[in-house]
Amino acid sequence: MRTPIAAYLILSGILFALGTVGVLVRRNALVIFMSVELQLNAVNLSLVAFSRMHNDLTGQVLAFFSMVVAAAEVVVGLAIIVSVFRLRQSADVDQARVLRG
Amino acid sequence: MVELTWLIPALPLAGAAVILPAGRRLGARAGWVATALVGAAFAASVAVLAELLSLPAADRATVVTVFRWIAAGRFAADVTLRVDPLSMTMALVVTGVGALIHWYGVGYMAHDPRVGRFFAFFNLFVFFMLVLVLANDYLLLYLGWEGVGLCSYLLIGFWHERPAAASAAKKAFVTTRIGDAALLLGIVLLWIHAGSLRFDAVLGGGTELSTAAATAISLLLLAGAVGKSAQLPLHVWLPDAMEGPTPVSALIHAATMVTAGVYLVVRSHPIFEASAVALPLVLAIGLGSAIYAGLASIGQFDVKRALAYSTMSQIGLMFFAAGMRMYSGAMLLLVCHASYKALLFLSSGNVMHGLGDETDLRRMGGLRREMPVTATWFAVGALALAGIPPLSGFFAKDHIVAFASTSGRTAAWVLASLAAFVSAVYIARPLFLAFAGERRNPGRAHEAPLGMQIPLALLAAGSVLTGAVLGWRPEGLLDGFLRPVTGALEHGEGGPSEAVLLLVSLAVAVGGVALAWWAWGSGRVEPEAFPRRRPELAGWLAHAFYVDDLYAWLVRVPGAGLGRALRLVDDRVVDGAVNGLGRDVARASRVAPVIQSGFVRSYALLFLLGATVLLLFLGSRI
Amino acid sequence: MPWLTLLVFLPLLGIPPLLLWRGATDGRAKALTLGVMLADLAVALGVLIVFDEGRAGYQLVERVPWVPQIGLSYLVGVDGFSIWLVVLTAFMFPIALLAEWDLRHRVRMFMALSLLLETVVLGSFVALDLLLFFLFFEALLAPMFLLIGVWGSGRRVYASVKFTLYTMLGSAFILVAILYLWFQTSRQFGEGSFDLRQMEQLSLGLAEQRWLFIAFFVGLAVKVPIFPLHTWLPDAHTEAPTKGSVVLAALLLKAGPYGMLRFNLDLFPEAARVFAEEIGVLAVVGIVYGAVVAMMQTDVKRLVAYSSVSHMGFVVLGIFTLTPEGMSGAVMQMLNHGLSTGLLFLAIGMVYARTHTRDMGELGGVAQVTPLLAGTFLVATLSSIGLPGLNNFVGEFLVILGAFRAHPWLAAAAVSGIVLGAIYMLWAYQRTFHGPVAERFRGLGDLLPRELAVALPVVAAMLAIGVYPRPVLDRINPTTEGVVRWVRSVEVGQAGLPGGVRGSVQPEYRPPAGIRPSPAGEGP
């Protein structure tokens, strides 16, 4: 028996909402970062689910793409976080507001 | 030889090109190089003249094309030289008198540290002057015209460390530039109406200019001539130009450059004749300038300024003659004047040389004892100018005044006689003030060396002879030679008999000199008695009726005021609008930072809100 | 041989070694840059030799599709309008560089920016694709902004921001007009294109043309600059380093009139005819206004900047006489102004390097200690006031001639600029060089050999053009005649003729005017 598509989408939605809340309420840059990853993977999940449903590989390929991009993003993002941490001894994003208008 | 006409201007140009970079190494020898090259140009001119004379009178006009200069659209101008009686007369005056003044300058400038530069500029001047008179094209003439203006600027300001010299140089250039701008417009207008600027095309009889066009063109050309020749109302630069070294005053501001205006009028006479008002205006300007400058000259105590006003007055007489269509008479006076005025300037240069650069007539007197030779030269020049027979000025001036008496121009004749009388007074005055009587300012004075006297001797010979040789009668040698260009002299009707004219002329000249003798030579009257007794009148004369002061006021008060106002407008209004706009934009942009708080999470929230709104919007459209 | 590509991109080759090569000391960086620029000058002379002087229309055209989807292509070529600007650019860059030889502050950066600037300037003079032109035209701003902002003096930041904002605002108009034209090409030819030669053949209504003309004109007028859009110029000139001023005056100001010749006349001939007189009035106002305001300046560099406003008025006046004489004169004048004002700024730089002031109240008498420098300045001054025998006269005279044919009163008013020019330039010369010399200036040295190497080539070029301008005019004339014919011939709404009208118009000289007076009524 196949799990109905709705289940995947509900799970994906929950994960995405968790990620969104995490991005909005947490102040630690690393945690925000993990939340973003959660959002990305939520979307990946729905992509794969739709791909299964339509029997079309495009969705899965797209998921791979987004994973690769996410990996690259991690590299850059972590580097930035590390250098911000070195500079300010903290990963609190609210303190990094020098570039306000 | 005619094909080699380009050599005539090329020789002095080569001189300038050699001396300018090598001046310091050449030192005083630069003067000899410069003199030799101008002398060679004179020789070349004589050779061309000889060939010209061997031709029948009707064929005495050759055009030598050197290269094409400017071409665009329908416009084309070539560098072409014209060999005809008029241009050769001018070229001979320029190179002949020029060579003598160069020669004199060798001695006069020997001790100046910048002697090399002086002769480079001097040669450059001769080059431009020759281009001016040899050009066959108004545009090339304009090149020479501006070129001599440049050299005049450089040489008036030769001692540029003196503020007066620097200012005088600038004033001369700018004042003549007003005339030059008009001349340029006239040239453009001529091209538009005649389709060419070549003398042989425009002036060759077949011009079909409408009267209006001819009037406009000739008035613009006249404005150019008036500026260059220091006639009313653009004359104010000439007296100040005396700040230059004396050879400069002699060559540029007496013998050659300032007479270029006369040359221009004579050369362009077909255009002037096609207009009804141009020639009468030339006549009036000439006569007015002659009398005005003559009176002003009487008021001067600086010998060079007195001579400068006398130059202006003499050129006024040339204009007067040209205004009566007596072109050969104007040219005869031009030739004679070149020689005796150069002589006068150079002998006053001798005086300055001997007195340590003294130019104030009040501090001279009795110099005939210490400087007998120079006194002789000055006397020859002064008497020639005054019109004492048989010196050259007598013939030149007498013909013009006599010509004025015919055709019902009685008023002009009377005024011209008055001008002649005034000129006798004003030129005898410095002669007596400087050389007669006793020294008013004791001090050492010494005669100039031989090297500076020989050129003066030659000029003195010229001042004695040119009139009698070239113009014994109005239809003399020069008139016959110029006839292919100027046309036959048209004598008017009526007027007093020749004997009366001759007597009047003699009386005017002798009377003028006698009056000057009584006032300044006999020792009965002090030189400063007149200014003391009639200060206002003397002031009017000394300041040349305050015309210069009026101009200075106009430039200083309304002119500079306008400039300041516009500058303020530029800073406050035009630029102020821009800066104000910038300020407003900057102020408006202070609203934006409220959103740009710098908190990453608030950005993320905004982002989320935006995405939601967009989604809802797109969803509602389905 | 891809002459133009080589010409444009050769300077770029010098940048990587400048930035990456560890051994590039300041001296080596200067030498390298100079070498690259001289090589580029050689290429430019090659272009001049290859250029066929008798032909109107574009030559040495190279075309490579770049973004074919939107019809953007790398399309370059030269004609009589641009050939001398190209040569002038390649000529002035090494000279301006030599003038800055003493630079110590961030030398490698300066050199790299200079090379970048050269590429960009050359590119905007040869681009025939409107978007490509726009890219180059806008790219001018970045290096110029930095040159003024980093190496300038006094209020340099204010000046550079003002300069940039002004020009970008103008460019916005141009961009809109270019996009509109692109949509028109895609509508009329089925395929969008930025190719100037295709846009020429658009058929546009008069109202459309007017709006587009105005958009282009305003954008370009800022660059010229035309009164009252000129106030960025004095600030930019005054605060820029010598090299910046020279490039600004000699080259960047030319982008404006060049664009007008290239686009306004070519694309909107009827609108050009409609607006010609109004623009002429504006130009003459600029001539007189610039001259009067120049007269009142005390900073000699600012004075020369205002004189540029006046001189560029002559250029614009010449263009919109729509006569071959006036237009050739204007093109000539662009070259001439580059030389004479360039030399003026170079000479001012030399004065400043010695005296550390540009205030004419403090200067004076310098001619006694530095006669060669004074001579250089004087030659530039004389050229600038249009003395015949020097370069400026030829262009100025032709402009006045053309203006007189088109609008006599405008010509008469423009001539007053000649008198005013003599006043303010000679006065500036007097206040700087004449009079007694101040004690602290007594020890100044005259020109160094390097400075002579800066001044002499420019002086030689000015003399050569003044005495024998035919090589220059012969290359300009066919193009102006073609454009004048094109502007005069096109009727409102008429589609362009196939095959590029401008290119096919054969240059045809009338026999040298003269001998017979022209029949009355002929002329514009």
Features:
heterotrimer, A: 101 residues, mainly alpha, 3 helices, 77% helix, elongated, B: 622 residues, two-stranded antiparallel sheet, 26 helices, 2 strands
Task: Describe this entry's structure for a reader.
The complex is a heterotrimer of chains A (101), B (622) and C (524). Chain A starts with a helix and ends in a 13-residue tail after the last helix. Chain A has 101 residues and is mostly helical. The model of chain A has no long low-confidence stretch (mean pLDDT 88). Chain A is 77% helix and 0% strand. Chain B has 622 residues and is mainly alpha-helical. Helix content of chain B is 72%, strand content 3%. Chain B is built from 26 helices and two strands. Chain B has helices at 7-26, 29-53, 85-108, 115-134, 138-156, 163-194, 199-202, 211-228, 237-240, 246-255, 260-267, 269-273, 278-298, 303-323, 327-355, 367-370, 372-386, 392-404, 410-435, 450-470, 477-486, 498-521, 529-533, 535-542, 547-588, 600-621, and strands spanning 62-72, 75-83. In chain B, strand 1 (62-72) and strand 2 (75-83) form a beta hairpin. The longest helix of chain B has 42 residues, at 547-588. Chain C is mostly helical and 524 residues long. Chain C contains 22 helices and two strands. A two-stranded antiparallel ribbon of chain C has the order 1-2. In chain C, helix 7 packs antiparallel against helix 8 (156-189) and helix 8 (156-189) packs antiparallel against helix 10 (206-223). Chain C is globular and about 75 Å long. Chains in contact: A-B, B-C. Chains B and C meet through strand 1, strand 2, helix 5, helix 6 and helix 25 of B and helix 8, helix 13, helix 15, helix 18 and helix 19 of C.
